[in-house]
Design a protein that fits this description.
The protein has 321 residues and is mainly alpha-helical. It has 11 helices and 4 strands. It has helices at 6-43, 48-89, 100-113, 146-151, 154-169, 172-198, 207-255, 258-270, 280-283, 296-301, 311-319, and strands at residues 91-93, 119-123, 130-133, 141-145.
């Protein structure tokens, strides 16, 4: 097997992730056009030429609003993500006087990598978990649960912090926030489209035909929206899974102790559940998903939508590092 260095893999993942992110607005535009076709079908005569003509005119009018809404959504999330994440996790700033041990570990790792020290937050929960967040040096933050601070030894905690610093160094946190925003856009576009289809007046049809066409078109709209949404979600999860492996490798590189992170992950896997976290988009930021995971056949099918690779596989790779 060809050896691939961390920097090479980082560059490859960055390129792949940029391509995936660029596909989000394309999916938004495609979904808007399909909904325009549905509305045009409800309003127009069945001739295909007329149908396409009406749909094109409608799309030309709607597309700027859809893309503008996407931009506005992005700007709001870009500037408000820190507060949104803090309120969704119950995180609070951790002062140096409260835990000099954590500050010393973070400072030493940042000095070794030439990184500016991020803010440090704590979640008052006895479970073991951690995540990094932020979009620039002013907002970069490493958040640790009280349980992970209390239950890991220095080497294990250092490895977890190194994992989160790798996410910051690799710009993973910024990319994940962007992908989360675009997935949210699909919910907004789908809701607007459903309402438009539901209240679109029908022409040249009887009452029964109107009712039948409404049901059929709503079903088609649901299918179209579901396909677009699932594609977006799978892209977002693919980005997250690939970058967890890279952050594990980055932590091993920083600490020169991959077994410490393997040991930490084993302890985290026994109790990662943070009660305050109920949003899946925020949950994907953590080193291990902080909610209950499905098992068996359902868990296997759900792996397509898993925000993290199997923790057993991550441990196996670290032990062979």
């Amino acid at each position: 097997m060809e050896y691939v260095g961390i920097q090479t893999q980082k560059s490859r993942n960055d390129a792949r992730s940029i391509v995936l992110i660029l596909m989000f607005p394309c999916l938004v535009v495609g979904m808007v056009y399909l909904f325009c076709l549905i509305i045009a079908w409800l309003q127009s005569a069945p001739e295909s030429e007329s149908l396409l003509s009406v749909a094109n005119v409608m799309f030309a009018e709607c597309a700027p609003y859809a893309l503008g809404g996407t931009l506005v959504w992005f700007v709001i999330a870009y500037f408000a993500n820190t507060q949104i994440i803090k309120s969704s996790t119950g995180a609070k700033p951790l002062e140096r006087r409260e835990c000099k041990r954590v500050y010393n570990l973070v400072e030493n790792l940042c000095l070794s990598q030439g990184m500016k020290m991020p803010k440090i937050n704590i979640i008052d929960d006895a479970s073991l978990n951690a995540f990094a967040s932020g979009i620039n040096e002013r907002t970069y933050t490493v958040t640790l649960s009280k349980g992970i601070i209390d239950k890991l030894d220095d080497a294990e905690l250092e490895a977890v912090i190194a994992h989160e610093l790798s996410h910051i160094r690799n710009h993973d946190v910024r990319l994940m926030i962007v992908s989360i925003v675009f997935v949210g856009v699909f919910s907004m576009v789908a809701e607007i489209a459903f309402r438009s289809i539901l209240y679109t007046p029908r022409r040249n049809s009887s009452r029964d035909d109107k009712g039948s066409s409404t049901i059929v078109m709503l079903l088609v709209a649901i299918i179209v929206a579901a396909i677009g949404y699932l594609l977006a979600v799978m892209m977002r999860f693919a980005i997250s899974r690939k970058r967890e492996y890279l952050a594990d490798a980055g932590a091993a590189e920083m600490t020169r102790n991959p077994l410490a992170l393997a040991s930490a992950l084993r302890k985290i896997s026994a109790d990662p559940d943070i009660e305050a976290v109920t949003r899946d988009d925020v949950a994907q930021l953590f080193i291990q998903h902080p909610g209950k995971q499905a098992s068996g056949l359902i868990g296997s099918l759900g792996s397509l939508f898993a925000t993290h690779p199997p923790i057993e596989e991550r441990i196996r790779i670290l032990e062979q590092f």
